[in-house]
Amino acid sequence: MIIFEMISKLNKRICLNKERSIHILSRVEMKNQENKIKETLTSPNEIRESLKDKSIWIYYKKYSKTPVTQKYMLVVVKVLNNEGEVITAFFTDRIKKGEIIWRKN
């Protein structure tokens, strides 16, 4: 079952399925953060490619206020062709290593 489907910043159709949604939103700090996940996919500060897997794209958006202070929302997406699926999402202190695909000016 698909929880949401949308077009990301780089025109990829991305979905979040129920299983991954339960995994992500069950964490205390991620409760009620679905809108931040969507916003990170459509208006990121940066998108990076995983160093280990070129089909994994990591979207980052900095938020001055989150349940755990100022942090980046990190959304991991598995991309095949023009479609992707959210694998996980969480708040982080910093942007991890990886090749930059896109960066906000």
Q: Which features does this protein show?
A:
about 100 residues; single chain; alpha+beta; 7 strands
Briefly characterize the structure.
By secondary structure, this protein is an alpha+beta fold.
Provide structural commentary:
The chain has 105 residues and is an alpha+beta fold. It has one domain (2-97). Helix content is 16%, strand content 46%. It contains two helices and seven strands, in the order ββααβββββ. The longest helix is centred in the middle third of the chain and has 9 residues, at 34-42. The termini are far apart.
Mean residue pLDDT: 96
Per DSSP, what share of the residues sits in E-state strands of 2 or more residues? over 45%
Helix content: 10-25%
What sequence of helices (H) and strands (E) makes up the elements? EEHHEEEEE
The oligomeric status of these chains comes to: single chain
Provide the low-confidence segments as ranges.
none
Number of helices: 2
Shape: globular
Please tell me how large the radius of gyration is. Answer: 13 Å
Terminal-residue CA separation: 36 Å
The largest sheet is: 7 strands, mixed
Major sheet strand order: 1-2-6-5-4-3-7
**Tally of structural domains:** 1
Number of DSSP E strands: 7
Judged by helices, strands and strand pairing, the structural class is: alpha+beta
SSE arrangement:
Layout (H helix, E strand, L loop, with lengths): L1 E6 L5 E5 H8 L8 H9 L3 E4 L6 E8 L7 E10 L2 E10 L6 E5 L2
